[in-house]
Design brief:
Elements: H1 11-29, H2 71-84, H3 99-108, H4 112-136, H5 145-155, H6 166-184, H7 187-193, H8 209-214
Helix pairs in contact: 1-6, 2-3, 3-6, 4-6
Length: 223
């Protein structure tokens, strides 16, 4: 990944770092997925939702559980994802990387935290389409790119408690994190982020000096 000089971080790099951090918080939720308890588990403990998946055979969307999003909701999801992470150069947009399918699987899962997200996402998608109809006279997916961005710009700041945008803003922040989680855990997303984990290195010369300077850190470890 090409890193800018200190003080010259470009907008896309800033967005990638921010969203990757959001993705980490979303993916942490997956650690709480319920698993079947062994015999003799404490009384009252949750029993889980079936056996572990067979990680050898391939799966397709809907194999785990019935999917939730309608075709219209998937169109809105794809359009919203692509405002958050549009295509750039050889890097595909979020929808091009399959993020709408990831979100559909996420909100369709039967686990408590995911059921909570399902309501947030479904209500939020309905609000976005309704607001787009009010502002532009068309569904969000059919609005012009600039119109989509302007609507998202209204949702991006955290709204004050009790304001009309409180719930839509909460939805957008959650949707933005889900989009980043879906994108940056794909091979193309990890490549775009510059993630090189699980790759053997012949040598390691320590963190890049420009990155250390940009973050205001002191590289006290000598390599």
């Amino acid at each position: 990944m090409n890193r800018p000089l200190p003080g010259r971080m470009d907008r896309r790099l800033a967005i990638k770092w921010m969203l990757a951090a959001g993705a980490a918080s979303v993916l942490a939720d997956t650690l709480s997925l319920a698993a079947p308890l062994a015999d003799g588990a404490p009384a009252g403990a949750p029993r889980g939702y079936g056996t572990d998946p067979d990680l050898v055979r391939p799966y397709k969307p809907g194999d785990y559980w019935p999917l939730t999003l309608s075709e219209a909701q998937l169109r809105t999801t794809a359009a919203l994802c692509d405002v958050i992470l549009p295509a750039e150069g050889s890097v595909p947009s979020a929808s091009g990387a399959g993020v709408p399918d990831f979100i559909d699987e996420w909100v369709s899962a039967p686990y408590p935290n995911y059921v909570k997200d399902r309501k947030i996402v479904l209500d939020g998608l309905a609000w976005v389409d309704g607001e787009s109809q009010k502002r532009f006279g068309k569904a969000f997916a059919d609005a012009a790119p600039g119109q989509r961005v302007s609507l998202c710009d209204a949702l991006a700041p955290e709204a004050a408690a009790g304001s009309p945008l409180e719930s839509p803003s909460k939805f957008f922040r959650r949707f933005r994190n889900l989009t980043s989680a879906g994108f940056y855990t794909t091979p193309v997303g990890m490549k775009d982020l510059g993630y090189v984990g699980n790759v053997p290195l012949a040598t390691f010369d320590g963190p890049p000096a420009d990155l250390v300077a940009m973050l205001g850190l002191t590289d006290e470890v000598k390599w």
